[in-house]
Amino acid sequence: MVEADDARISDETLIGRTAAGDAAAFGRLVRRYQAAVYRFARAAVPTAGDSEEILLETFRAARRSARRHRDEPSALPWLLALAHQAIERRRTDGREGDLASLRELARTAGWGEPARLADAALGTETVGSALAALSPEDREILTLCDREYFTIDEAAQVTGDSEAVARARLHRARLRLTARLREGLHGS
Amino acid sequence: MEAERPLAGLHCGEVLADLTEHLDARLGPERSARIGEHLDGCERCRSLREEIAAAVCALRELPEEPLPPEVAERLWAGLEEALG
Prior knowledge:
The structure holds 2 protein chains of 2 kinds. Chain A has 9 helices and no strands. Chain A is mainly α. Chain A folds into 2 domains: 6-90, Rna Polymerase Sigma Factor, Chain: A; 102-187, Winged helix-like DNA-binding domain superfamily/Winged helix DNA-binding domain (Arc Repressor Mutant, subunit A, Orthogonal Bundle), CATH 1.10.10. In chain A, helix 2 packs antiparallel against helix 3, helix 3 crosses helix 4 and helix 5 packs parallel to helix 9 (163-187). Chain B has one domain (12-83). Chain B has helices spanning 12-17, 19-23, 29-41, 43-60, 69-78, 80-83. Chain B is elongated and about 65 Å long. Chain B starts with 11 loop residues before the first helix and ends with a helix. The model of chain B has no long low-confidence stretch (mean pLDDT 91). The chains are: A mainly alpha, B mainly alpha. Chains A and B meet through helix 2, helix 3, helix 5, helix 6 and helix 7 of A and helix 1, helix 2, helix 4 and helix 5 of B.
């Protein structure tokens, strides 16, 4: 029997079948989200090797815990939460508190100066370099909200933060990205 | 650049704290309208909002990196047992 197109099978169905031991359904889930999980890991850890390990750990954990998540309407927040847990286990230095004042961050992002970015040609390389120069924590929240288009509550679910903390993290990360892009323009 | 002053009943620092929320349309209508009014009259806050919006737009336009085929191969080999 020919199975329906992958896209027509909901995440919920695939998770439910995975929980019931259906290896083909698990394979479909892996195929559907392997690139997104890898991109998330690449943003949050320094090396490609670490990202690959996180990718594998994430899907192994998903296979083990599918039974507890069979009602998830969308698999990606759950999978990225598993990836986040794997990333946190690797962090030996802990997350540093973000003590920079908002006003200081805003000044570095051009508060009080004429806008520069709106009319600038921001190439892939410039943006990629600015993103790479940020901390893993900043890259993580930007990837969730501005690359994967997660809502704040979905992002908070992934990182284990409260929604208020996730909102503040996103705002600060955007200010730091803005500052890096302005620096990049200045340097070019 | 003008000195900080309240506009629409809001100081620049208050607007600064809510710029991302305003940009993402997550504020309530009343707060959003007041911030919009402040932005209309405050060049430095408006200019910062434009800068953040441009940065977010540039980030969202970055091409999605595909999963390298060799990484996919190793992933599937690592999941062989689970995949049956």
